Amino acid sequence: MNEVLSAYGFSANTSLTPHGNGLINRTWLVRSDKGTYILQQLNRHVFARPQLIADNIEMVGRYLAAHYPTTIFPRPVRSLAGQTLVDADDKSHYRLYPYIENSVSVDLADTPRQAFEAARQFGGFTRMLSDFPAERLHETLPDFHDLSLRCRSFSESLQNGSAQRINKAAPLIDYLQSQNRIVAQYESILVDPGFKRRVTHHDTKISNVLFDKQGNGICVIDLDTVMPGYFISDVGDMFRTYLSPVTEEEQDIDRIQIRQEYFEAIVKGYLLEMHEVLTPAEKEAFVYAGEFMLYMQAIRFLTDYLNNDIYYGRRYEDHNFVRARNQTTLLQRFQQRSPLFRKIAAAISGQF
Ligand code: GN1
Ligand code: MG
Fold this sequence. Notes:
Layout: H1 2-7, E1 15-18, E2 26-32, E3 35-42, H2 50-67, E4 86-87, E5 93-98, H3 112-128, H4 147-160, H5 163-168, H6 170-178, H7 181-190, E6 198-200, E7 209-211, E8 217-220, E9 227-229, H8 231-242, H9 260-274, H10 280-283, H11 286-306, H12 319-350
Antiparallel strand pairs: 1-2, 2-3, 3-5, 4-5, 6-9, 7-8
Helix pairs in contact: 3-9, 4-11, 8-9, 8-11, 9-12, 11-12
The structure holds 2-acetamido-2-deoxy-1-O-phosphono-alpha-D-glucopyranose and magnesium ion.
């Protein structure tokens, strides 16, 4: 770590404290005599080509600076040698961001207003970039939200995974396999000219938005997975992570619930920015967005469970089983509300 800190010119009396709770990268708050920063170590098994991320951030940053000069967009701090990524001896890559003073981040949405503000930030991000040619961005994680591919990986884990775990997860496996119309609908979106490939964030959890002390959204952060994609990824991941009062880590399924006011807040906040950008076909797909992301996350956790936790890791024996069961329960509870939510989304959309 010292070699990394000295690459940025930090002195010996610099303190590092772990920050946030992402599953993939490692993050620290850096306090130094030069000021406060955020340092991140990119997971080199997941992001095999970190230079692509740095290029994307540069392209997006330049476009926003030229077209929306007042927008806040945290760009990486360069090392003394002028690099945006610093290589360490252990082959991992680090980058540094300025810490935005007076910003607040939240780990779990606990008011509908936070959900609204976050949705507005993610919607605003895609809207500001709606004239930027999305295909110019690199796919930092190829096929990241390709549901067909995730299903094939799930099928492979049923062939080659742990027999004991397959047995234990049988009810979850049966339910998820019975829902393959969610995959069929995704495949029809791929060939539907009404769905556009847009600049999509792909990780819209609430901790990826910074708020000010009054609770207004300031900006979105964590641009590792900004790539061309569909709006259902961003809206769906907001439903997945803001609708329930408990996270994907919750073991007690009775506590997993769907909060209707949060659904309304996300649709309103997102449409406030995106109503002129989204096509009619996309506006009809809000509820599908939730099913898409919940289904994908349920099968990703379950696949990893069957493959003995090689991707997400685990802190206890059945951790990924618990996560998969949590996401499957949330999917089922979301589906129970779908007819009502379709009406609500259509009504909100009609207000713009
Ligand atoms: C990972 O690292 P984190 O927590 O931001 C994953 C997301 C999942 C999420 C589930 C690159 O995100 O796709 O939705 O875990 N990111 C990657 O918690 O796989
Ligand atoms: Mg992330």
